[in-house]
Amino acid sequence: MKGIVFTEFLDYVADCFGRDMVDDLLDDCDFSHCGAYTAVATYDHRELVQLILSLSRQAGVPAPTILRDFGVHLSQTFARRFPFFFEERTTLFDFLDSVENTIHVEVLKLYPDAELPRFITNRRDDSVMSLDYHSSRCFSGLAAGLIEGAARYYDTAIELTQATVSQGNATHVRFDITLR
Ligand code: HEM
Fold first, then answer.
1. Radius of gyration (Cα) for the chain, nearest Å?
2. In this predicted model, what pLDDT tens digit does every residue of 149-176 receive, in sequence order?
3. Is residue 142 within 8 Å of 124, Cβ to Cβ?
4. What percent of the chain has pLDDT over 70?
5. Residue 66 CA, ligand 1 centroid: distance in Å
6. How is domain 89-179 classified at the CATH fold level?
7. I need a surface site. Which of 10, 13, 20, 135 has the fewest CB within 10 A?
């Protein structure tokens, strides 16, 4: 997983839980690089899982809540760092439609070793979209937060539900996004 995700995660922790919590997490996890993440380098995505579980233990917040909140934070960061991806689309559904075939394709040009999920979007009608998330890394909670953050960007009220499609793990999750 690209370092930008880790540097943003530590920023999120500092903002929401304080600087000391960042130090406590890095002490607890004891990685060989001592938490000195660089945005363009690549790290094992399981380190993010470790950091989230450690934060969950130390802050007493459920891990799924942390992953989702972090997704919202990351969406805001992406909107700041890559504004053109957002500005080129006028609606939430147009934006979500473009993640698989445009945005993540551009991300891959920027970071050729990025490990990206696969999305299939399907507009059921004008107010309902289903979005199928496929990834061996099982970060659907992050996807949920990114969808919520994008909805906020487009000032669109949504109802978001999700169901696991794959058996025994969360490699395939279906989201239903309904405009309210
Ligand atoms: C401008 C918008 C976006 C940008 C620039 C972007 C970029 C990225 C980058 C750099 C990564 C890390 C890849 C790696 O670590 O190797 C990533 C991963 C990911 N992206 Fe996006 N993304 C965007 C929008 C979205 C949206 C809207 C969603 C949800 C629908 C999404 C879902 C994910 C998920 C869940 C991952 C984690 C990897 C995985 O689950 O396998 N992204 N994205």
1. 16
2. 999 999 999 999 999 999 999 999 999 9
3. no
4. 100
5. 16
6. H-NOX domain (3.90.1520)
7. 20
Alpha helices, H only, the chain: 3-17, 19-29, 45-59, 63-81, 83-87, 92-98, 104-110, 140-153
Ligand 1 pocket mutation pick from 38, 116, 131, 147 by most atoms within 8 angstroms of CB: 116
At 68-105, the pLDDT tens digits run 999 999 999 999 999 999 999 999 999 999 999 999 99
Amino acid identity of residue 42, one-letter, is T
CA angle, corner 114, sides to 13 and 168, nearest 5? 75
Domain spans in the chain, listed from the N-terminal domain onward: 3-61, 89-179
Q: Is 68 in the pocket of ligand 1 (CB under 6 A)?
A: no
